[in-house]
Amino acid sequence: MKVLVIGSVYPRFQEDAEVPWLRTSISHLKKAGVEIQVLAPSYKGLKSHNIDGTHVNRFRYAPANWEILTHEEGAPSKMASKPWLQLLAIPYIINGFIQCLRICRKWRPDVIHAHWPFPHAYIALGAAKLFRIPLVLNFHGAELLLIRKKKWVKPLLKFAIGQAQAVFANSSFTASKIKALRDVNVEWSPYGTTLEERRGARDERRQLNKASVAPNVVGHDQADQLGLERSDNPKTKEGESLPLASAANAASATPSSGDNRIKRESRPTKLGMIEPNCWDSVPTPQLPVPHPVNGKFKILFVGRHIERKGIRYLIEAAKYLPTDKFEIRIVGGGDLTEQLKQQAALLDERRETKDERDVILNEREDNLKRRESQPCLHGYDRASKVGATPHPVNFSGVEGSPASIIFTGKLSPEALANEYKTANVFVLPAIVDSKGDTEGLGVVLIEAMELGLPIVASNVGGIPDVVIDGESGILVPEKDPVALANAFKRLEANPALIENLLAGARKRIDECFTWDGIIERQIEVYKRVVDSRK
């Protein structure tokens, strides 16, 4: 079977870590015997090339210096900051449409799999109709957000959905948005973790070459997503893994997929979405153990500092956490970093004010005891024994000293791996932001689970697909700092709860987020749509 995969982003060079989940997905499809070619836009004049043995067809749509609409950052965000980039949308679609026709005329794929259907459904539609090739659309949520900003997108997406032979969604949240547009069956096709792929690549590389090890490097987009330092001079060898993979090995020896599992039948959900083939896993030989608490209970956030991540509410939660027990560590950077640091600085001022108050009160008590033991001197009167300070401080509303907050900035892969190893809980306080955007799935949660961390996350978007409240993590209402703080306190006070959540997280990953199950379901859909055209 031959499949043409279309998307707005694909790795530009071997060390580039753009869309690692898509790259891993294609790798697993190829292992399953599927022939793959990729169609993606050029970036600054980049020509067609090969990545991991997969041919990547790059279509040009502007002079090289102008070809920056995709990669590094989402196109909608780029167009918002640089409106002139909207002028490139028309040549982008036209040239992609023409290139798709050329590829399909020459290569004749059995299926066209278009990610981010707006606009890529329209790049694929001509070839799909002309050559009678089944079209599969894959939604990730961002394209559905455009409907709120640009009303004219809605009928275009609705029409495109009607032309597809199958529709994938990365989460039940995304599926509900699709069904609000058009009542169709939607296949749940989440991402798996890329940690296993990195471990496998590392082990294979070590077998081939034990003499030398290249430094770990990640690409700019993945660096921003995961809070890593960017590498501007990548020298990593093909298949180099991140230290996160080593952290995963340390966290658990449990395989995330295997041959001893009993497949469950797919079943429709209340949304009309078809769940993927999950797996009833056999008892695992070893489960992750809670990380030791060294000094304080460390709360870790990793990601971009943007509104939908809800970091401001995590900072607010520090007010309800005692400073002697908890520490919040915020990794990454973004547009809101300085604003968030200012918010945290206000808490630091309050902490200093609390400390100053304690010092003043202790001094007053000492002075009072000393003066009461002595005769009145220099007109000192017992009526004035409370004394006065030269700089009065207003302590109204101060409830105590809040937990400390540390901004690490973007980290090297090694430093990031250490953050995961030394943390005690991972948090994603996501919200539905002012633009209506939220987390489509939360792959970072899956990876944190594999690294042996219990999860506290908001009950929004696709997060509940990963975190089953009380089983694989703790869900809290969005924008609720008190609920966040209470969840952290529960975990800090109850190591047995952490163990239970880690076991539940391992089970959830094995059931629904292994690449074996995800890819098998994809291939079943491919076969079904091909057979329907015969």
Task: Reconstruct the topology from this structure.
Elements: E1 2-6, H1 20-31, E2 35-41, E3 49-51, E4 54-59, H2 75-81, H3 89-107, E5 111-115, H4 117-130, E6 135-139, H5 142-149, H6 153-163, E7 166-169, H7 172-181, E8 186-188, H8 195-208, H9 220-226, H10 243-251, E9 262-263, E10 273-274, E11 279-280, E12 297-302, H11 311-317, E13 326-331, H12 337-372, E14 404-409, H13 413-422, E15 425-428, H14 443-450, E16 455-458, H15 463-466, E17 474-476, H16 481-493, H17 495-512, H18 515-532
Parallel strand pairs: 1-2, 1-5, 2-4, 5-6, 6-7, 7-8, 8-10, 12-13, 12-15, 13-14, 15-16, 16-17
Antiparallel strand pairs: 3-4, 9-11
Assembly state:
single chain
Name the average pLDDT: 79
Sheet/helix structural class: alpha/beta
Helix count?
18
Task: Please give the largest β-sheet.
Answer: 9 strands, mixed
Query: In total, how many beta strands?
Result: 17
Order of strands side by side in the largest beta sheet? 3-4-2-1-5-6-7-8-10
Helix content class: 40-55%
What fraction strand?
Answer: 5-15%
Low-confidence stretches: 201-226, 228-243, 248-272, 279-285, 375-399
Rg, Å, rounded: 27 Å
How far apart the termini lie comes to 14 Å
Write up what this structure looks like:
There is one protein chain. The chain is an alpha/beta fold and 534 residues long. It is 42% helix and 14% strand. It contains 18 helices and 17 strands. The strands form three sheets. It has a nine-stranded mixed sheet with strand order 3-4-2-1-5-6-7-8-10, with helices on both faces. The protein has a six-stranded parallel sheet with strand order 14-13-12-15-16-17, with helices on both faces. The two termini are 14 Å apart.
